[in-house]
Amino acid sequence: MPVQYSDLSVGESHKWTREKASLFDVGHMVQHRLSGPAASLLLEKITPSSITTLSSYHSTLSCLLHPSTGGIVDDTVITRLGPETFYLVTNAACRSKDLAYLEEQIEGSPHPEGIDHQVLDNWGLIALQGPLSSEILQNALLAAKATDLDGHEEFDLQALFFGQCKHFILNLPSSPEATPVLVSRGGYTGEDGFEISIPPPLTQTFTSFLLANAGPEKLRLAGLGARDSLRLEAGMCLYGHDLNDDTTPVEAGLGWVVHKDRRVGGGFHGDGVILRQLKPAKDGGTPPERRRVGIVVEGAPAREGAKIVSVANDGGGTGEGEEIGYVTSGCPSPTLGQNIAMGYVKNGMHKAGTEVGVLVRGKRRKGTVTKMPFVKSRYWKQTAGGTAPG
Known about the structure:
Strand content: 25-35%
Strand order of the largest sheet: 8-9-10-11-7-1-12
Shape: globular
């Protein structure tokens, strides 16, 4: 995926996604299929997610964890496709590390013979994102004479909510065979949208069909530049920048990936460290020394590596200009017209409204710790009273 395409600048592409819809080629991501009678046991060990309660055709964001330390090997989306069949997506930059990790964890599991791990090489993965995404995909599936796995031709994507997925069989004139694609509602922009996993023979055909069926007045291709600013506005992490092997989910503000039942029983890598970090100090816990935060920065934008310093003595040993953290991602926000960043600061300095200094090109800029996401997410979710973006 290029940084941008020739028809729109990065900023224009960003705004197009927020107002209409964009298509991102994310086929560089690594797609996996994990199956077998011991597959769920493995996932319960290497992630803090409650795999046993994950329903079929539902997904959860999770983290692969290092034993003992609870550091994040990679962030991942896990989808259950059957009783013991799972679909995972991991980061391309972590491919070699992740494959070695999974091989080691499978071989070291109690029942390695009960686990089959396949990497779906050459499969396509596209992300359709933006408020027009549902309309565009609904029309494309109808035009492609799609059916679900039960042969039903009538379906409504409004009934497919964030974190859910469904297989569709496409019947395109130019496709070599009727092949199922996996449509998952979600994405990396904070907008409503879908990620579509496509078998190799159909990737180019369906992508071209989707673009042509929607037309350029509704759907455009978008690149890495817009993807990065969109995900930052949405408060989403990028591995290798905002996450790494030495960072736990709690430090990263991802404590919610540790599901409720796992907080009681543990049994996952790094549970000793992570569960202590989740527990309040008054109850015997050990809060993390640092926390990921969002920051709005005045003046020039702060980039990765910029130092974060205190601006006043708070009576707790934090003096004027003392280094308290660092920026991991930052850019001007096309939506807000402000400079936004995320980074890590000392525990206690992470509360919304805390004023800090950010050193940009040798000059201290005023920063304010801010809740994330910076821009309200518009996922299509099922609510108690019906359905609504949120």
